[in-house]
Amino acid sequence: MKHYAVIPARYASTRFPGKPLALLNGKPMLQHVYENVSATKLFDEVFIATDDLRIAAAGESFGATVVMTDSSLPSGTDRVAALTEMMEPDCVIINVQGDEPLISKTPLAALLKAFEDNDVRIASLMTPLDTPEDLNNPNIVKVVTDTRSNALYFSRSTIPFDRDGKGKVNYFRHIGVYAFRYEALHEFVALSPGILENTEKLEQLRALEHGLPIRMVITDYQGIGIDSPNDLRRVEQFLKDI
User: Fold this and answer.
1) Which of 39, 75, 87, 150 lies at a 20 to 30 A Cα distance from 68?
2) 49 belongs to a structural domain
3) What is the C-alpha separation between 21 and 238, in angstroms, rounded?
4) What global pTM score does this model have?
5) CA–CA separation, 214 vs 89, rounded Å?
6) Residue 98 scores a pLDDT above 80
7) Are 17 and 81 in the same domain?
8) Would you tell me the crossing angle of helices 53-61 and 29-39 to the nearest 10 degrees?
């Protein structure tokens, strides 16, 4: 089975325009993501998918394989799906967001390993969450799973609710790195957003609403997403401290 990684990157971020090209320790953030994914040696090919010529030029300058996609595509997942004509159908495709400059081999290898179970069609990452501030932060997405580690629900609210306050609940934060079998990716992007997705503004709920299971993989990777220049400075400091 072939393994591919696609890094969708767009310039027109509302909160942080030009985010993929923002410099992190002297290199575009997108370059950090591409180099980290490529260095894992887990993938037959690594692509950058973008609709912006500035991002394409930057990617080509550091040796990436860049594919231009239609600017009308509504999401990064759609941009990933647009590249599948360049892939063999018997494959797993990992969507690594362009603002994951700390991504490493361990969580990506764990995602790929999940597909050794033939029942797994979509997989994603989760990490333990235990600070009250994060539990109550709607920008941090929580996930609960069943006994097979398939997602039951994703929410910006604190789930599950500890009604009796016994403190014995294990909470998990969702990290938005996704892996798909080829056919599952096409099935997903063909679906229409449902009530839950439109309410929580969480794309992954589309899969659950339509009965597509998502296998959740526990990881120590924290996935520090970058949504503002302040986040970028926080990651710069983190890299200096390690």
Assistant:
1) 39
2) yes
3) 19
4) 0.93
5) 20
6) yes
7) yes
8) 50
